[in-house]
Amino acid sequence: MAANRSEIEYLQLDEQQSFVQKVQAYLADKSTRAAYVHSYGCQANVAEGEKIKGVLSQLGFGFTENIEEADLILLNTCAVREGAEDRVFGNVGALKHNKRRNPELIIGLCGCMMQQKSVVERLRRSFPHVDLVFGTNAIHRLPQMLYGCLTQGRVIEKPEDEIDTTVVEEIPTRRDNTLKAWLPIMYGCDNFCSYCIVPYVRGRERSRSPQRVLEEAKRIVEGGAKEITLLGQNVNSYGKGLSEEERINFSELLRRINDIPGDFRIRFMTSHPKDCTKELIDTIAECEKVAPFLHLPVQSGSDRVLDVMNRRYTAEHYLSLIDYARERIPGVAFSSDIIVGFPGESEQDFEKTMELIRKVRYSNLFTFIYSPRGGTKAAEMEDPVPAKEKSRWFQSMLKEQEQIVRDLHEEMVGTVHRVLVEDDNGPAENGSHKLAGRTGSNVLTELYGSPDLVGNFVTVKITKAYNRSVDAEMI
Ligand code: 5AD
Ligand code: SF4
User: Cys-Cys link to 287, which of 208, 228, 258, 321 (CB 3.0-4.6 A)?
Assistant: First the structure.
């Protein structure tokens, strides 16, 4: 198969680079330089927020965590559920006062929400204090858009019907965390689960070339990071659309990253169960740097609901993957996303999801009440279950899950784990420091030790279990 994707390097975009110089020159004699960037939603968004900061840094901006002292505010939005959208509108509304206090302030919105026509129309009409709007594949044009804002006023990009799927490489990245790095390996999604807006706002699936991914992974490790999380809406279909010469599958990509010298840990998300293979599970088992952890969103335990969701697997198939992973990967842990109250879901369907949860015993569960998204198939479906009932199901699921996690933590007591120490939570009474980190299976672990251990792997024995974490001592 020939390559059906195109790629370009940010630094080769001559027009943008000329705007970089123009913005730099414009800002040189101004004091307006502090940017506040906030990303809502998933890790893909957070990773894109880090690219936005990279470009802003190149343009001469500094950064502030305090929105009140910012000269540029950029909200990187999420469209997956209505609640996330409401929050953004609320926050943008409140920024009217900031603009009144500081008319020079630039307020910008980007990300998934800006890919919806109705949202952009509403912003254009009812939020005149918003200066800049752009969608999910436009970060590389930020120099030009910002120059327009600084010199002419409002720049509101139209949401494209067909999202440009050119992969733009080497956009500068300013990572928030030097220890744990996000590494996107692909963008977009082709799956069209019937409830999900992502394929509409992020466009068709495209993979980065393995060489680019490997080079970036090497740079991340050389820069001192101890954990890399590979990101994609469905990492299991990595490689689709690459040219024959460079095409490899996700398992092979994992193996090649695992071969990079250095002591670091590899995580990845998200895996779609329909594309999760035994080969992938074997690869996790065989690669010592790949964490024994699988985020495998099931969404529902009812085959009927899974079918209407267009998930293309059954609960039985899903459980067979879990069994195989348990067999092959010692100490493996699972996490999942679950939607409660999908249109037409019955109490029996919900019970099937509860049964599945009890069988898998997830160490972490991301649970969502179904939220209709305009333009998706599910938004057209009849939804007779009252919100109150959905909420009751949701609560009972949370309760069950809390108990499962507590039990899993109790079962860890006495076992030995390798923990990446991430935080120093300050001096403790016994003269050492209270430190916190995570096991390969992603359990939050607290221990005492020297603050110098932050950024290192330590071997610990678990001593005590809590609902949200465990205590451990170094051995
Ligand atoms: N309503 C509720 N949850 C949703 N998700 C995606 N779309 C919706 C929706 N319309 C959840 C899914 C997905 C996660 C990222 O968000 O569980 O895996
Ligand atoms: Fe949405 Fe399904 Fe794609 Fe995940 S796989 S982003 S849930 S359409």
Answer: 258
Q: Quote the ligand 2 centre to 443 CA distance (angstroms).
A: 26
Q: Tokens 């179904």 appear where?
A: 370
Residue 127 sits in the same domain as residue 217: no
Residues 265 and 327 in one domain: yes
Assess whether 376 and 346 both reside in one domain: yes
pTM value is: 0.96
- Domain span at residue 119? 5-156
Give the pLDDT means over successive 10-residue stretches in the chain (475 positions). 78 94 91 91 95 97 95 96 93 96 95 95 96 95 96 91 89 95 97 97 96 98 98 96 94 98 98 97 98 98 98 98 98 98 97 98 97 97 96 98 98 98 94 96 97 97 98 96
Phi, psi at residue 418, to the nearest 5°?
-100, 125
CA-nearest residue for atom 13, ligand 1, is 337
d(CA 64, CA 33): 10
Query: In terms of C-beta density within 10 A (0-12 exposed, 13-18 middle, 19 or more buried), how is residue 338 classed?
Result: buried
